[in-house]
Amino acid sequence: MVKKELILEGEVCPNCAIKIEDEVRRLGNVSSASLNVMKGTMVLELEDGFDQGTVDATREIINRHEPNVKVHEEESKQNKPEEKDPLLKEKLTLGGALVIFAAGFLFENSPAGLPLFLAAYILSGYPVLYRAVRNITRGDIFDENFLMTIATVGAFAIGEYPEGAAVMIFYQIGELFQDIAVMSSRRSITSLLKIRPDYAVLFSDGEERRVDPKACVPGDIIVIRPGEKVPLDSTIIEGSTSVDTRVMTGESMPRDLNPGDALLSGFVNISGLVKARVDKTFGESSVSKILRIVQEASLNKAKTEQFITKFARIYTPIVVGLATALAVIPPLVTGDTFSVWLYRALIFLVISCPCALVISIPLGFFGGIGASSRNGILVKGGNFLEALNEVGTVVFDKTGTLTEGVFEVTEVVTDMDRHEFMGLAALAESSSPHPIAKSVVDAYNGQIDRSMIREAKEIPGMGVSLTTTDGDVYLAGNSRLVSVEGESNQGTRIHVSKNGRHIGTIILSDRLKANAKETIAHLKKRGIATVMLTGDIRENAMSAASDLGIDEVHYQLMPEDKLRILEEKLGTGRKLIFAGDGINDTPVLARADIGVAMGAMGSDAAIEAADVVVMDDDPMKIATSMDIAAYTRTIVYQNIAFALGVKALVMLLGALGEATMWQAVFADVGVAFLAILNSMRIMRKDFRRNS
């Protein structure tokens, strides 16, 4: 299965998006299709590999529903310079229609009145009328274009010329508001995508030259000057600087870096010129992962979004049926004038337009995902954002999640020469990405000769195994890997053996993260249970849990033990979060209801398996993500209640003859406008916590 993203240039109406998705999903090679109105993209999952015929068929479906939308396959089309005002034509058209409409009132009682109102109606409503007629000829009747066409043509038919023109003009003004809101939301995400570096300065043979970041490979040397973006994940080898990590982590404080420190792509160099060694290709760099996560977030829709989509499919046929009944049945029963009840039915149709719901709900979730991104939290879809409101338990890994994961060697116990022993231990640990292994390597002050390594492998949950070119086998790990008599329970310990014989022990200590205790306190205030799973020994685990206030602790666990305990806690009614950072946590992250990867220092596998990625490893961001989710849900529910409540009230008043066409159109446009403004509040709210 492969994914194919199409770039849509031009605005797509939400109801059309639903129909396009449905038709595309029925194509033979398509496993799933998701059209993101906010981003202007269509993502296809193709079952049998890339198929140009399916892509062409998708383009034809899009253009059939939205003839003015251009479909591009190339990503570069999305990065072209943005027009100064893409909606200028619509604004000028509506402005002209309003002027003609106002002139119609000046000549309302003269022969010029009807032509002026009709001209304003056609000028503003031509796109709606065209789409309605086109869809009717295809048998696709029930949508907002049909509602507006029937309502306005009916108004003209019964002599209500000003109302007919007003309904169309103000409906189009409402559509313009929606387009402006979508573009604003799109820009907020596009601003995040601007972290993509344009070039890298490659240093080779004593010369510097600009190249595409994709042309660099691990081991290349790049130069980063003040003001430039870091193009690739790399390690500083020369120079010192401060970097702005805001786009990646959400933190405004600069970070000071020196030789040996890691640079993540997307950081901005502030002060000093540095040379760095490339660690990863562009496709595997942090910036690429972030872009991929953000761009694919729209594929995972929240249940509320899915409900509104289904609701819109059945809502329009129902209200058309009710309006027809309202126009026909009462005159037959009561003998009243048909035109009176037809007018009421037209009011019913005007207010029933579902646009406010169809656009404001996805806009709300899109805003929540954007707000999360600005705070250094990558949420992989509206479904996960919504699920964060239902959390009952948070399960934490200890090392690197609640603790710094930066271990310090406090004691070395060996009968060998200390430097020689540490050299052997560092050689064994040099092949492991684990924080403890890195601490051992850092504690050794000598040169590690990796040419001595014949084979090295990590043994999950226990340590590492090393075979040298001399045939010696070294094991470095916990007591489950290296058997030790009289094992002490003080500190984190690494035992080292050579050819099955224990040759020494390294004792290390770890520190709690600055915000770890406050994070647990915030979760408890929410009534959320906290659990810690760790492979560490009992004393270390209990000490950390006591300091933090953790409710439940499990220690000396293998990866399969963590998975077993987590599965025992799943399915209790409320959602369960697992937060971890290591490669050993990948199965647990994938199995949890919501997997949270502490991403900046976490493994690639953990980031891929997680549903939420915290870029700066701050556990407080878990609480922040819940704040954003709660605020997003509040906004979405407000929009649903407000839109349905106002529409139901005006529908009732219209049916009883207590509302006019003017009130209906202003209520419809007003509801859409206020719901959109309400959704956009999410993107402007400050969710930062002062811990």
TrEMBL record:
Q: Which InterPro entries match?
A: ATPase_P-typ_cyto_dom_N, ATPase_P-typ_P_site, ATPase_P-typ_TM_dom_sf, ATPase_P-typ_transduc_dom_A_sf, ATPase_P-type_domA, Cation_Transport_ATPase_IB, HAD-like_sf, HAD_sf
Q: Mind telling me which residue stretches traverse the membrane in this protein?
A: 113-133, 311-329, 341-366, 635-655, 661-680
Keyword Transmembrane helix: yes or no? Answer: yes
EC assignment: the record states 7.2.2.21
How does the UniProt record describe the way this protein sits in the membrane? Multi-pass membrane protein
ATP-binding as UniProt keyword: yes
Domain spans labelled P-type ATPase A: 196-294
A Pfam family: Hydrolase
Query: What subcellular compartments does it reside in?
Result: Cell membrane; Membrane
Q: Domain of life here? A: Bacteria
Keyword annotations from UniProtKB, A to Z: ATP-binding, Cadmium, Cell membrane, Membrane, Metal-binding, Nucleotide-binding, Translocase, Transmembrane, Transmembrane helix
Where does this chain mainly localize? Answer: membrane
Reactions that this protein is recorded to catalyse: Cd(2+)(in) + ATP + H2O = Cd(2+)(out) + ADP + phosphate + H(+)
- What family is reported? Belongs to the cation transport ATPase (P-type) (TC 3.A.3) family. Type IB subfamily.
Query: What NCBIfam families does the annotation carry?
Result: ATPase-IB2_Cd, ATPase-IB_hvy, ATPase_P-type
Q: Which PANTHER family match?
A: CADMIUM/ZINC-TRANSPORTING ATPASE HMA2-RELATED, CADMIUM_ZINC-TRANSPORTING ATPASE HMA4-RELATED
Please report the name of this protein according to its UniProt entry: Cd(2+)-exporting ATPase
What is the organism field in this record?
A: Youngiibacter multivorans
